[in-house]
Write a structure and sequence with these properties.
The complex is a heterodimer of chains A (242) and B (366). Helices cover 36% and strands 26% of the residues of chain A. With 242 residues, chain A is α/β, with parallel strands linked by helices. In chain A, strand 1 and strand 2 form a beta hairpin. Chain A is globular. In chain A, 45% of the residues are buried. In chain B, 39% of the residues are buried. In chain B, helix 8 packs parallel to helix 11. The chains are: A alpha/beta (242), B alpha/beta (366). The interface between A and B is medium-sized, with 32 and 25 residues.
């Protein structure tokens, strides 16, 4: 579903993303790990068509990331680090807006948002302003909205930052459910316990991918007891630090 | 078109929910029409006049009482000699001095003696206009005296200066210009602020990962403010009619057509500037510079004809120049779109140009 070869993004002399390559299969949950400043967000922005790569190639859902970024955007959902639903619109109004942008009919929007709100058990708050909703709920809503048009790939950039453990667990349940329906999930996180929920993880250090495998294989390879130890032993040699 | 509709509905919902905007767009035109014309008026009233009467005849008394009766002139005092009048002018109590020479009354029916007028240049507008008014009043008085004796006015004695036209209310001249100022402010600033605040909040990122077309997105930022400007313009025109009794001499549609084109220009300029800026401060500063240039150079406050030649050429490249001309002519004299077609064409050209620039400068991928 995602295939990337030798992707590089250079700002002046600084290589934010340095020659990375990887593949992600359909329905896979792919964890994209790395310390602050490792280049995760830059990489995800290139894949989503928000930023142009300096060199390299790749495809998402069969579309070229260099030349068909607008085509890719039809097939992806994106939820960014910074919470970005419209706070001065209600839950339902946000859903109507994004549904409309992706060309869903009013009927489809109504049916899907109803079903999704029911699944979230958030139906009674449909007319609340998003600005008045607690962070944990907002993140779950943002995920739901990013998923409204049933994208083939969904990119989540630190979706659980600042979210309490209970909500994080619920959030990951939502991610797994989405993946089981065939959607590819590409997720960045700082929480190593979350990394163990992923089918495969990559660890990025100083713009390069230093390790890529299933969590259990990585734990075995580094002789560690958890992903947390794996991450620390890989990231120890990092030069860049925020 | 469904995408555009969704985006416009979003803008309208956000606008209505904003605690400040709806009030602003109603109060702004009301304040501009009700307050500004009184302040920006260039009408000169209550010009303080000092008279040095060396003559003391019937004729000089008639002139004095005529000046006293004038709506625009205010008789300060009558002096024995010129130096004492000058002293008062230096203290700023007198804007203009009229000197009536000895024997003026006798000479009036044959070959009139010369009258002298001095004006106070400190307040140049009041001084120069005031002395014009003064001359005119005196001339009118002399004309009356001579014609009552069956005499013609000697050639060149009464030179009508167009500066003074009591039937022309300066407020009427300023109101169309103030309406344009409103369109500049509302049509230019609001879309710019709206867009750059989406940048600051980060919501634009979320829009940029969607397949939304950049022309459609740009239009969604223009259309709501187009509608708001139309409502405000209508409000201004109604107020101008009710409060100042100023109807549109030409066709209302001619006004709205020009406004429709001009709003696109202003909103596109606003969107373009917001596209090129990263922060609210940047946007505000550049917008202020552009708007001030528009207002000062395009003939909104000062007539284009009195600008230096190079500046007159600059005005050709400023969109407001054309709408100011259209508004004033259509509003005050009445003219049709056909008669002013070159100005409409220029506005339409600017509208297309800036709309394309606004969409081009919007980059979904940095």
């Amino acid at each position: 579903m995602i295939s990337v070869r030798n992707l590089t993004k250079q700002f002046g002399d600084f290589k934010a993303v340095d020659n990375i390559s990887f593949d992600v299969a359909k329905g896979e949950i792919f964890g994209f790990l790395g310390a602050n400043g490792a280049g995760k967000t830059t990489a995800i922005r290139i894949l989503c068509g928000l930023s142009k790569a300096t060199s390299g190639s790749g495809t998402i859902a069969g579309c070229d990331i260099m030349s068909q970024s607008e085509e890719i955007k039809k097939n992806i959902g994106y939820m960014c680090q910074k919470f970005s639903l419209y706070e001065d619109l209600t839950v339902l109004e946000n859903m109507e807006l994004y549904g409309g942008i992706y060309g869903l009919t009013a009927k489809e929007i109504a049916a899907r948002s109803e079903a999704m709100l029911k699944e979230l058990d958030f139906g009674e708050h449909r007319n609340d302003l998003v600005g008045s909703i607690p962070t944990g709920w907002r993140q779950k809503l943002a995920f739901t909205v990013a998923n409204l048009h049933r994208p083939k790939v969904i990119f989540l950039d630190e979706p659980t930052g600042g979210v309490d453990p209970l909500t994080r667990r619920q959030f990951w349940a939502m991610i797994r459910r989405t993946a089981s329906e065939g959607t590819t999930v590409f997720v960045t996180t700082h929480y190593m316990d979350e990394a163990e929920h992923c089918d495969r993880v990559s660890v990025m250090v100083d713009g390069k991918i230093m390790a890529l495998d299933t969590p259990s294989a990585l734990i075995e390879k580094y002789g560690a007891s958890s992903m947390d130890e794996v991450f620390r032993s890989i990231a120890r040699n990092a030069v860049r630090n925020e | 078109m469904g995408v555009l509709r969704s985006l416009i509905i979003k803008e309208i919902r956000q606008f209505r929910r904003n605690p400040f905007m709806p009030k602003l767009v109603v109060m702004f035109p009301i304040a501009i029409v009700l307050v500004m014309p009184w302040i920006t008026t260039m009408d000169v009233k209550d010009v303080s006049v000092g008279i040095v009467d060396y003559d003391g005849s019937d004729v000089s008394h008639k002139i004095i009482s005529r000046i006293d009766a004038s709506e625009y002139l205010e008789l300060n005092s009558i002096y024995q000699d010129y130096p004492s009048a000058l002293e008062d002018m230096e203290d700023g109590r007198v804007d203009a001095i009229l000197e009536i020479p000895d024997g003026f009354g006798r000479s009036i029916l044959s070959k009139p003696e010369k009258l002298s007028v001095w004006s106070n240049g400190v307040n140049s507008l009041k001084g120069s206009l005031g002395s014009q008014y003064l001359m005119q009043t005196v001339m009118q008085c002399l004309k009356d005296i001579r014609s009552s004796k069956g005499l013609q006015i000697p050639e060149g004695l009464i030179e009508t200066t167009n500066l003074y036209n009591p039937t022309m209310d300066y407020k009427h001249f300023m109101i169309p210009a103030l309406m344009i100022m409103l369109l500049v402010m509302i049509g230019g600033f609001l879309p710019a602020l709206n867009l750059v605040s989406e940048k600051e909040l980060g919501t634009i990122e979320q829009i940029n990962v969607t397949p939304v077309n950049r022309f459609v997105f740009t239009l969604s930022k223009l259309i709501p403010f187009w509608i708001i400007c139309f409502i405000d313009l209508g409000l201004c025109m109604t107020l101008a009619l009710l409060v100042y009794g100023l109807p549109v001499a030409g066709s209302v549609w001619a006004i709205f057509l020009a406004a429709a084109l001009f709003i696109i220009v202003m909103s596109s300029v606003g969107v373009m500037i917001a596209n090129l800026s990263d922060t609210m401060q940047q946007t505000m500063f550049i917008m202020l510079f552009v708007v001030l240039s528009f207002i000062l150079i395009s003939g909104l406050m000062t007539p284009v004809e009195s600008m230096p030649e190079w500046a007159q050429k600059v005005t050709w490249f400023l969109p407001p120049t054309y709408i100011i001309k259209i508004f004033r002519i259509v509003y005050l004299k009445g003219a049709s779109v056909a008669e002013l077609w070159t100005d409409y064409a220029a506005l339409a050209g600017f509208a297309v140009l800036f709309c394309i620039l606004a969409a081009m400068t919007y980059k979904k991928r940095g």
